[in-house]
């Protein structure tokens, strides 16, 4: 490629550090990246954004998959990808999203503290829980209708918009583990042996099923619903397996069977 053309292109390319203020504003971590709260440096745009820095250097297969899916998905209850920024100097990839002030994990944690008597009592209207659940189901129905499995549904990945036109709107986020499931070249379990965060992992995943369906997302939503009602993980198990290379976990299955009963044939 002509070096002059490359230089001109590099000068025209917008750089994240020049466009946004986000230093020291880290707000979380996704499946494959770190998330920062950001504001535009120039102009009169008062809006806040979320900038996700993809982990590693260059564009990995997981980053390509996430970007490709997000560019196609458009639904009020699924996070919208605004723009992708490529930084050639340090080979970084940045994704720009609308900023959500809350997520269900922080909301549940707040009410758990209240339940524990550490803060004044605040009643959560049943209509609010119903609205949250309806929006999560509406978003996941859209994903499933378009042959997308999320595979990492948990309270931390369910965002809730704050002040503004979309106040109270649910946004399903973090598509790092999402996959198309209409015609996989291999069983999904062979491509990604461990999916779905521990307490929200369906029994078929814990038992090492090679083939699974959208039921694993619905199971996770059921776990989230129970947590919204009680402010405690329904299948809480003390031992974590963040680094485990196998989805099986004896204690987690025991906890599920303890709550739901043992499976039996019809």
Automatic annotation (TrEMBL):
Pfam families documented for this protein: Pkinase
Statement: the UniProt record of this protein carries the keyword Transcription: no
UniProt xrefs under PROSITE patterns: PROTEIN_KINASE_ATP, PROTEIN_KINASE_DOM, PROTEIN_KINASE_ST
UniProt entry keywords in alphabetical sequence: ATP-binding, Kinase, Nucleotide-binding, Nucleus, Serine/threonine-protein kinase, Transferase
Reaction(s) catalysed (UniProt annotation): [DNA-directed RNA polymerase] + ATP = phospho-[DNA-directed RNA polymerase] + ADP + H(+); L-threonyl-[protein] + ATP = O-phospho-L-threonyl-[protein] + ADP + H(+); L-seryl-[protein] + ATP = O-phospho-L-seryl-[protein] + ADP + H(+)
Presence of the UniProt keyword Kinase in the record: yes
Binding site residues for ATP: 52
CDD domains given in the database record: STKc_CDK8_like
Assigned GO CC terms: nucleus
SMART domains, A to Z: S_TKc
Domain Protein kinase: 21-266
Residues spanning the membrane: none
InterPro entries tied to this protein: CDK, Kinase-like_dom_sf, Prot_kinase_dom, Protein_kinase_ATP_BS, Ser/Thr_kinase_AS
GO molecular function, one term: RNA polymerase II CTD heptapeptide repeat kinase activity
Record localization: Nucleus
Family under the similarity heading: Belongs to the protein kinase superfamily. CMGC Ser/Thr protein kinase family. CDC2/CDKX subfamily.
Protein name in the entry: Cyclin-dependent kinase 19
Native organism: Geodia barretti
Source lineage: Eukaryota, Metazoa, Porifera, Demospongiae, Heteroscleromorpha
């Amino acid at each position: 490629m002509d070096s002059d053309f490359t230089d001109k292109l590099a000068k025209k390319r917008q750089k994240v550090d020049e466009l946004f203020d986000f230093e020291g504003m880290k707000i979380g971590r996704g499946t494959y990246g770190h998330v920062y709260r950001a504001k535009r440096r120039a102009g009169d745009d008062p809006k806040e954004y979320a900038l996700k820095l993809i982990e590693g250097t260059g564009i990995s297969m997981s980053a390509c998959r996430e970007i490709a899916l997000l560019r196609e998905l458009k639904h009020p209850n699924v996070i919208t990808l605004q723009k992708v920024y490529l930084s050639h100097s340090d080979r970084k990839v940045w994704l720009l999203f609308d900023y959500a002030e809350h997520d269900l994990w922080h909301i549940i944690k707040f009410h758990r503290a209240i339940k524990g008597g550490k803060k004044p009592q605040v009643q959560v209207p049943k209509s609010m829980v119903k609205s949250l659940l309806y929006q999560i189901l509406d978003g996941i129905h859209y994903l499933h209708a378009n042959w997308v499995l999320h595979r990492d549904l948990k309270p931390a990945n369910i965002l809730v918009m704050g002040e503004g036109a979309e106040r109270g709107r649910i946004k399903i986020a973090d598509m790092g583990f999402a996959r198309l499931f209409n015609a996989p070249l291999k069983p999904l379990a062979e491509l990604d042996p461990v999916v779905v965060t521990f307490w929200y992992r369906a029994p078929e995943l814990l038992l090492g099923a090679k083939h699974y369906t959208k039921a694993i997302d619905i199971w996770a939503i059921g776990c989230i619903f129970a947590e919204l009602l009680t402010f405690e993980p329904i299948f809480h198990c003390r031992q974590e397996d963040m680094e485990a290379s196998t989805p099986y976990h004896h204690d987690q299955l025991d906890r599920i069977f303890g709550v739901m009963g043992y499976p039996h044939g019809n």
